[in-house]
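Protein modeling request. Please complete all fields; requests missing the sequence field cannot be processed.
Requester role: graduate student
Desired output: 3D structure, token encoding
Chains: 1
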Amino acid sequence: MNPTHLPHVPNAEQRHRAARVLAHYARDAADLADLLDMVGLTAEEGLHLALQEPEESAQHSARPAPDPAEVRRLSRVVLACYDAAPR
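Delivered output (87 residues):
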């Protein structure tokens, strides 16, 4: 591995798509919350694709970690939206 290469940092669209994929494969809301937590994503990222300015992204990353109960609630919303969507 070449140490001069920087690690890949996913953009907002990639994070959104990753959260949606996890929602597809999760068994239930608790499973989704665990999967999102494992990879450092939030349920909010799966709900909408936010187009942020670079300054806004830096402010967003400085926020404290979300409440686990809120993450589970948002995970349920993501799953419900996904289950209701036509396939």
